[in-house]
């Protein structure tokens, strides 16, 4: 994988000729990867990795995938979720039978600058969502100059977690400033979209999952903190709020101290990405899943640039104090393109209760929630994949919601084939 930041570059400069440990049957997968500049003043460049579609469809399609954080590499999505490969152990790579590249091109981008293999001067990390969007548009300009075929593709933006902020901002910019790109839809998994709904969901979700006992001392402590949080959010809209972040950490550290986890001690905490699991304090899920450990060993090689799953420097700088949450952008986007919101049933940090609360309160395309008029609502129906109940699905006025049974924050990690079925159903 070659870093390229100069001018007059061609697609061949980014061609990936091979990777260690790849199975022979994967040798035919065409890949391009490298860096493209987005901010010359502060030496900023974003890293991308493109996988060509395995099978030719009726039309060319590209899914642009972003992970969240902020500051978490999109190569997590490439190597542990929707990409062509999975790690079986530290030195064994196998094909992912639920890879999204079976019928779409995949473009993974490490952003904002400073994330994953992307870089920028250490005093120039970005702070706001508009800055992120500008860098992303700069990247797209550079990318299209080298790979103009992207303009002939149907484009879908997809991602998870804090990408629930990135994706609506980028989509709005593409639709208003980049009309030559054929953006046809968005897919957001376990998205951090509406902070208020998410923060408010933590306590009831914790009670429902036996992490906090109803009416206990801990319950009342968290309830009081939730009131403080919601008062702050009612006075001023934030993407993050320190008082609200205390709710999650309190539940993660002190919840389920009795019998939910048989070996729960004070040095362990709830895995905030999968409430069925626990972890060491203060990681609380950052040590999971093991595939990321394998990816880190693979990507962070001494003979290559260093790579980390999530960059603390980006996370603590990108606080978006002056950005409006992306929930404010969704109604106008839904007027123009379809959107899929999907949730893993066992995720805590961006749990489905918060997503459902957000959708029920949101007004789009002249109605609120899943109201169909005439005192009827869109039904919540069983979603079947491979002849098995995979979850629940609901659709109204360009918005589709899918709840994945027994899935975590990283739905495609748990159920690659089911996530692929979701994509296929959306884009066909």
TrEMBL record:
- According to UniProt, the name of this protein is Pheromone-processing carboxypeptidase KEX1
Say where the protein is mainly found: Golgi
Q: Where in the cell is it found?
A: Golgi apparatus, trans-Golgi network membrane
Quote one Gene Ontology molecular function term.
serine-type carboxypeptidase activity
Q: Does the keyword Membrane apply?
A: yes
CC per GO annotation: trans-Golgi network
InterPro entries named among the record's database cross-references? AB_hydrolase_fold, Peptidase_S10
Q: Which reaction does it catalyse?
A: Preferential release of a C-terminal arginine or lysine residue
Record keywords: Apoptosis, Golgi apparatus, Membrane, Signal, Transmembrane, Transmembrane helix
- Its family? Belongs to the peptidase S10 family.
- Per the UniProt record, which EC number(s) apply here? 3.4.16.6
The membrane topology noted for this protein in its Swiss-Prot or TrEMBL record is: Single-pass type I membrane protein
